[in-house]
Amino acid sequence: MPTSENDSPPVYREIAEDVRTAIASGRLSDGDRVPGENDLMKQYGVARATARQALSVLINEGIVVAIRGSGVYVRAFRPLRRHGPRRLSRELWGAGRAIWQADSPDGSFETDSVEVAEVPAPAYVARALGLADEAAVVRRHRRYRLEDRPMQLATSYLPAEFAAGTAIAEPETGPGGIYARLAEQGRAPAHFTEEIRVRMPTPEEAAALHLNAGTPVLDVLRTALTEEHTAVEFNEMTLDGSAYVLQYDFDA
Amino acid sequence: MPTSENDSPPVYREIAEDVRTAIASGRLSDGDRVPGENDLMKQYGVARATARQALSVLINEGIVVAIRGSGVYVRAFRPLRRHGPRRLSRELWGAGRAIWQADSPDGSFETDSVEVAEVPAPAYVARALGLADEAAVVRRHRRYRLEDRPMQLATSYLPAEFAAGTAIAEPETGPGGIYARLAEQGRAPAHFTEEIRVRMPTPEEAAALHLNAGTPVLDVLRTALTEEHTAVEFNEMTLDGSAYVLQYDFDA
DNA sequence: CAGTGGTCTAGACCACAAA
DNA sequence: TTGTGGTCTAGACCACTGC
User: Fold this and answer.
1) N or C: which end of chain A has fewer CB within 10 A?
2) How far is B251 from chain A (nearest CA, A)?
């Protein structure tokens, strides 16, 4: 008698599934209000904690957002396209535009909270740049915003050997950005390698990027190399996963 | 008197933060047991629901996993490297190896639950392949495993016009896989474009990939084009975000 | 069998949003 | 002011792990 009544999913999952299919089927769409805690309690005859647990599933999946005092709403996904190879082409920074402007449809990216410092290289940075551990590097940290929405955090590391004391170590790097400055030194980046990981954000990142619960971030680690394959920059970027689509084109 | 005691974070967040820093500082490392519900209740003098809420934060961040009847443990991250351009080079499938073998350090990938069918193309597939809406396509779905761990789901679409009735529409496509078959037809893939998105998995994907809570997935949408820029395959892949690092190399 | 995490109830007080 | 979501307590029963 005892245990043959097994494997029926818990109530809160079934409630979540009902709401999820209502969204997937289009019965509820972007920005629509979904049944709140009180609605679910009445409709399913469950306690408040159970209704909340059902909603928390959907919130952690990133498909709805809760707004205190107002309700729970279907979340939209309207990403920006970040084109790998094209955006780093010489034409862009050769013409006096900073590379990140290639992301933006209308060039309205803004940069924010810039911090420049000379520091000893962390181990993974030293490895990427081919330097000795703790070798001096210039670190540039900044945040990018588009129409007041924070989109990306970025931290660049360049060997202090050639970056210290130049415009690269200034908050404002001048037309074309650091790549143009490198080119003037005869260290123009010619090859790039990007490494992409996914994870959930730390609380600090969630705050800095204004992320909703259930939004993963993309880590993009880029190493820029000269024609002679000397590493000249290591850039560690953290992107709002709900804001970006990455694109890479290549040949067989 | 009333409200000047504001903005202190809720208890459950502070507990979560304590555990998080214990992990970040290295006091707790991969696979270590972290304080469980009962431990936290005693240490912080909170109710069980509060201790659980603190743990649920960390679980949804993907940094710990809960094992029923046992405890809560620090989660490891040991990803596979998936190298974009290199893995699709002609050498690989020209030599009779399927491309996904490039992912695997020792070639021990296995394929699973293969489904082949001829279906009308969904709108986004038709667009990617340059076909009319609802045009007939061959759909190939499969799951990839490495040492019994499911790593990736993939669904390929090829125009039925040249794929139907060939080995491409069979579960076993022969040496070199579908790309070798395409090459024999004079439709060898020469250009690729990959589009990458991140999101939290659906419950079905979480089950199929054996994902822990708090693990995002990577969607990789690849279009393969011939030398003449005719689209011959559209491949929709869903990767376990905790299992992969993607790498792309390109030139300025 | 004792201990763990998983689910669920029935309350409580709070901060915030919208009417 | 009413209703919403956010936090928290104090219980309960269950399924599973590991000794």
Assistant:
1) N
2) 4
Query: DSSP class of residue A99?
Result: G
| B197 contact residues in A (CB cutoff 8 A) | 79, 241, 245-246
pLDDT tens-digit profile of A51-84? Answer: 999 999 999 999 999 998 899 999 988 888 898 8
What is the DSSP code (8-state) at residue A243?
T
**CB closer than 7 A to strand D: which residues?**
A 3, 6, 36-39, 48-49, 52, 55, 66-72; B 10-13, 45-50, 53, 67-70
Measure A37 CA to D2 C1' (Å): 15
Which single residue has its CA nearest the C1' atom of nucleotide C16? Answer: A69
From edge to edge, which strands make up the β-sheet containing A64-67?
Answer: A33-34, A71-74, A64-67
Band of pLDDT at residue A6, cut at 50, 70 and 90: very low
B60/A60 Cβ within 8 A: yes
Reported as half-sphere exposure (CB side, CA atoms, 13 A), residue B181 has a value of 19
- Strand blocks (E) in A14-108: 33-34, 64-67, 71-74, 80-83
C-beta atoms of A198 and B193 within 8 A: no
Nearest to A90 among B60, B193, B252 (CB): B252
The answer to whether B100 and B144 are in contact (CB under 8 A) is: yes
Q: Sorting pLDDT into bands at 50, 70 and 90, what band is B1?
A: very low
Residues contacting A70, CB < 8 A, separation 6+ = none
Q: Which 174-203 residues of chain A touch chain B by CB within 8 A?
A: 188-203
Tell me the average pLDDT across B15-37. 92
Mean pLDDT of chain A: 88
Nucleotide nearest B12, from its CA to each C1': D7
In sign, the C-alpha dihedral spanning A247, A211, B213, A49 is: negative
Token pair belonging to B65: 């996993």
Pick from A13, A17, A216: CB nearest B200: A216
Which residues in chain A are closer than 8 Å to B198, comparing Cβ atoms?
A: 198, 216-218, 241
Angle at alpha carbon of residue B185, lines to B183 and B189, rounded to 5°:
35
In chain A, the domains with their CATH numbers are 11-74 (1.10.10.10), 80-247 (3.40.1410.10)
Is pLDDT at B205 greater than 90 in this prediction? Answer: yes
